[in-house]
Specification:
With 355 residues, the chain is an alpha/beta fold. The protein has twelve helices and 13 strands. It folds into two domains: 195 residues, Isopropylmalate Dehydrogenase; 129 residues, Isopropylmalate Dehydrogenase. α8 packs parallel to α9, α10 packs antiparallel against α11 and α11 packs across α12. Bound molecules: nicotinamide-adenine-dinucleotide, 3-isopropylmalic acid (IPM) and magnesium ion.
Length: 355
């Protein structure tokens, strides 16, 4: 368990409460351990990913992460910052290339969505984001000085065929288990890297005759997500487009505080984290929504621990708490009861223990 920075420790405390209850009641036998990452690790050890933290991650069946980063560390050199030296480093070193970001609308939250209730009722989208390649990791990268003395920043957007194939395979297989529709999002009208992306994904479609494949440019996909989001079942896309589209999709579900994620390697070992960040604007106030992290625990039990029943218990408990009208500030609407981060965690625990 890597709590990280900002609201990270607050939401992780609640996730841990929930995990401990399920661990005991379902006899899961999970051993929990903690370590520092991100800004917290920089402050304590001078590095965002201490060797000891990485060793614990590499040994673990699964990793649960809160969030990293914040204004305190934003002036560090790019390579030392919590986001790059902590989070991206774990993703890369453990080869966690398959990022699943489900945007599901709990019916109780239809009124909290930024879209009209009828546009989001029954929403269930899965964004499959490639997580260890693309422009986030391409070389060369940097900030250089030009002959005229001006500085120029540059990054390289690169994907090879095998990287595209392995993420597309994840997406095709998930589409087979879900609604049978896969939309690949690219910018193949401009960027060669995504022309190759489209070609490879198209070529793979013949192996998945039961999946209806479509392609969409990313600008249109952003528009369609807020126009008619229910047209999507599974969306597969590269690292940066997936980052942006998943934050947009989050808002359809009422709040970014509701969106969990799984980041998996080829064997299903994974890191689980809410899609949101460390929310420095509300850190320390006890008002952050812990449900994305609690739902990430459920994803962890399902994908890395082969405990789908325990995962379901948590998801059902979250649903019951929402039925009771309990809301953190980000999902609050009139007639509901506004609760703090810890009251929300306690309510999920109570719903679990009351069955
Ligand atoms: N996985 C991660 O660790 C991760 C992800 C995204 C951003 N970050 C980092 O987090 C810091 C802040 O980034 P940002 O402000 O762009 O994004 P953010 O997701 O932290 O916050 C965006 C907005 O959403 C709100 N919000 C986020 N999570 C919430 C929750 N659980 N409950 C209620 N409201 C919530 C915040 O208060 C803020 O207004 C930056 O340092 C960024 O690099 C980390
Ligand atoms: C903090 C940042 C590096 C990260 C990303 O861009 O992948 C975050 O935004 C996310 O969505 O997990
Ligand atoms: Mg993001």
């Amino acid at each position: 368990m890597l709590a990280g920075d900002g609201i990270g420790p607050e939401i992780m405390t609640e996730a841990r409460k929930v995990l401990e209850v399920v661990n005991a009641s379902q006899n899961l036998g999970l051993e929990l351990d903690e370590a520092l990452v991100g800004g917290a690790a920089i402050d304590a050890f001078g590095t965002a990913l201490p060797d000891d933290t990485f060793a614990k991650c590499a040994d673990a069946e699964a990793i649960l992460l809160g969030a990293v980063g914040g204004p305190k560390w934003d002036t560090l050199p790019p390579a030392d910052r919590p986001e790059k030296a902590g989070l991206l480093e774990i993703r890369k070193r453990l080869d966690l290339f398959g990022n699943l970001r489900p945007a599901i609308l709990y019916p109780q939250l239809a009124g909290a969505s930024s879209l009209k209730p009828e546009l989001v009722a029954g929403l269930d989208i899965l964004i499959v984001r490639e997580l260890t390649g693309g422009i986030y990791f391409g070389q060369p990268r940097g900030i250089r000085e030009l002959e005229n003395g001006e500085r120029e920043g540059y990054n390289t957007y690169v994907y090879n065929e095998s990287q595209i194939r392995r993420i597309a395979k994840v997406a095709f297989e998930l589409a087979q288990k879900r609604g049978g529709r896969l939309c690949s999002v690219d910018k193949a009208n401009v960027l060669e890297v995504t022309m190759l992306w489209r070609e490879v994904v198209q070529d793979m479609a013949k192996d998945y005759p039961d999946v209806e494949l479509s392609h969409m440019y990313v600008d249109n996909a952003a528009m369609q997500l807020v126009r008619a989001p229910k047209q999507f079942d599974v969306v597969v896309t590269g690292n940066m487009f997936g980052d942006i589209l998943s934050d947009a999709a989050a808002m359809l579900t009422g709040s970014i505080g509701m969106l969990p994620s799984a980041s998996l390697d080829v064997n299903g070992r994974g890191m689980y984290e809410p899609c949101h960040g460390s929310a420095p604007d509300i850190a320390g106030q006890g008002i952050a929504n812990p449900l994305a992290t609690i739902l990430s625990v459920a994803m962890m039990l399902r994908y890395s621990c082969a405990e789908p029943q325990a995962a379901q218990l948590i998801e059902d408990a979250v649903s019951r708490v929402l039925d009771q009208g309990l809301r953190t500030a980000d999902i609050y609407s009139e007639g509901c009861r506004k609760v703090s981060t810890s009251e929300m965690g306690d309510a999920v625990v109570a719903a679990l223990t009351q069955g």
